[in-house]
Write a structure and sequence with these properties.
This is CENP-V/GFA domain-containing protein. The protein has 1 helix and 11 strands, in the order E-E-E-H-E-E-E-E-E-E-E-E. It is mainly β and 133 residues long. The protein has one domain: Metal Binding Protein, Guanine Nucleotide Exchange Factor, Chain A (Beta Complex).
């Protein structure tokens, strides 16, 4: 089991097992959402357990998919999100919220066409100009 939480600890998510995938997203929406130059995300299969209150934000992606982001209403941390219609398949959690420097490295980089030129990727990362097919 892994546990991730917001900065103040009010909102938490617990996931089981190893991540289905770990990746970086460089799309402009993720840059604005995180306040950083990319989002680092890990997806996990259900079940997962959420405790605390969350504020939700629904955003439509470039290819029409709709994503429901959950934020802590107290500290503002963006903790996790799901894709509308795919909640039974996976949940994506912000890697930094695990506060685990030994967390597995990313294996994919999406929307790489928006990656800042000074951001270097770890060796072996699969790069996708936009979303993978």
């Amino acid at each position: 089991m892994r546990s991730a939480s917001c900065s103040c600890g009010q909102l938490r998510i617990e996931v089981d097992g190893e991540p289905l995938g770990v990746g970086l997203c460089h799309c402009l929406a993720c840059q604005q959402r995180t306040g950083s130059v990319f989002a680092a995300l890990a997806s996990f299969a259900p079940p997962y357990r959420v405790s605390g209150q969350a504020t939700e934000y629904l955003r439509q992606g470039d290819q029409g998919a709709r994503f429901r982001f959950r934020f802590c209403p107290v500290c503002g941390t963006n903790l996790f999100h799901t894709e509308e219609g795919c909640e039974a398949r996976s949940v994506s959690v912000a890697v930094g919220a695990f506060a685990d420097p030994a967390f597995p490295a990313p294996r994919a980089s999406v929307h790489d066409s928006r990656r800042h030129a000074w951001v270097a990727l770890p060796p072996g990362v699969r790069v996708f100009d936009k979303d993978p097919p």
